[in-house]
Amino acid sequence: MQKRTKQIFLAGWVSIILNLLLFLLKYWAGLISGSIAIIADAWHTLTDSLSSVILLIGIKISKKKPNVKRPFGYGRAELISSIVIGVLLAMIGFKFFQESILKLINGGNEIFGKTAIIVTIISLIVKEVMAQYSFYIARKTKSVSLKADAWHHRSDAISSLVILIGIFISPYVPYVDAILGILVSCFIFYTAFDIFKDAVNPILGEEPGKELIDELNKITSTVSGYDVKLHHVHIHNYGNHKELTCHIVLPPDMRLSEAANIADTIEKKILEDLNIVATIKKEPYK
Ligand SMILES: [Zn+2]
Ligand SMILES: [Zn+2]
After folding, report:
1. Cα 181 to middle of ligand 2, angstroms
2. C-alpha dihedral, 116 to 121 to 126 to 128, nearest 10°
3. What's the predicted TM-score (pTM) here?
4. In this model, does residue 65 exceed pLDDT 80?
5. Strand order, beta sheet including 276-284
6. How far does the centroid of ligand 2 lie from the alpha carbon of residue 232, in Å?
C-alpha cells in the first residue's frame, strides 16, 4: 500500500475505534440520565464510526483499476458511499427531532448527574483531538475527504460543548433537554447535508475552478506556441480519475497532421502536470 493510503487507513481505524467507545459511553450516560439529547448524540457518534467503515470500503473499491466494464475506474464508489452515510444521518436526525418535539410537549424528567458531565467533557476533548489529528493528516496527504472528516469532528466537539452548557443551565431553565435534543438533531441534519452535498456535486457535474483554467491556459500557450484561445472546458470527476474536454482554435490553413500534433502534445502535458485525461476539439479561426 502507498504511504498516503496507509495514513488515511490509520486515521479511519482510529476514528472507528474511538467513536465506538464514545458511543458506548454516551449511550450509557444518556440512559442513566434519561437525556434525549445525549442519546441522540450517541447515535450520531455510532454513525460516525459506521461512516468511517464505509469510507474505508469506498477507498478500497476505488483503488480497483479501470477495465472494459468501468472505463473510468471505481473512484465514484467513494462518493456513492458518502451518499449512503448522508441519508442514514438524515434519518437519525429526523428520528430525534421528532422525539425531542414529543418531549417538549409531554415533558419528562432527566437528571444530568456527574456521569453526564464527565462523559460529555471526555467526548469534547476526544473529538477535538481527533479533529486536530485529521487536520494534520489531511494537510500531509492533501486528502479532501479527510479534511471534511476533520471539520466533522470539530462540529461534534462543538455539539458536546453545547450539551455541556445545557447541562449546567438545566436547573434554571425548563425544557433544556428537549431544546438540546432539537439542537443536536439540527447538528445531525447539517452534517448529513454537508456530506450529501460534497458527494452529489462531483456526480452531477461541476464548473471547472478558476485555478484549473489558469493552469490549462499556461500549459496550452507554452506547449503550442499559438494563442489557441482555450474554451468550452468541461471536467468529469471520477475521484482519482479525471476526464476533461475542451476546444482550441488554430489557423484555418494548418495541416491536419500538425493540428493533431499540437493537440496531442497539449493532452500529454495535461496528463503529466495535472493527472487529467484530456480530449481536445480543434477549430479553425473564424
Ligand atoms: Zn459526527
Ligand atoms: Zn468551440
Report:
1. 55
2. 130
3. 0.69
4. no
5. 231-238, 241-250, 276-284
6. 6
